[in-house]
Design goal:
By secondary structure, this protein is mainly α. 56% of the residues lie in helices and 6% in strands. The protein has a two-stranded antiparallel sheet with strand order 1-2. The longest helix has 25 residues, at 58-82. It contains 5 helices and 2 strands, in the order E-H-H-E-H-H-H. It has helices spanning 6-9, 12-24, 46-54, 58-82, 92-99, and strands at 2-4, 35-37. It has one domain (2-82).
Length: 105
């Protein structure tokens, strides 16, 4: 099973805090970028998980998420504006139809 703590993924300090809290509780942290993997609920220090979730007020989480999304969109626009897409190649049959006056979709 896994539990996704996106707030931990977006904040390196919070990630370090989670790692420290697991170690202090004598539990092994098996985690990816935002997921905490476990086999049974007893493998989790539930007070640590609760504190981790409660430490991220919804308004702060949404604002941080929107900031990340805006940065990604801006970066994507920069990348797209630097590279022009290659012109589409027209097939031989489409060229023949265009030459004869017939249109294609």
């Amino acid at each position: 099973m896994s539990l996704y703590l996106t707030g931990v993924y977006m904040d390196d300090d919070r990630r370090a805090e989670l790692e420290r809290a697991f170690a202090d509780a004598g539990k092994k942290l098996d985690a990816g970028k935002s997921c905490v993997r476990f086999r049974k609920v007893d493998d989790l220090p539930l007070d640590v998980i609760g504190d981790c979730i409660a430490a991220d007020p919804m308004e702060d989480f949404v604002a941080r998420f929107q900031g990340i999304q805006s940065a990604r969109k801006a970066k994507s626009k920069q990348t797209r504006s630097k590279t022009k897409p290659a012109p589409r190649k027209t097939s031989a049959s489409a060229r023949k139809k265009q030459a004869s006056g017939r249109t294609t979709k």
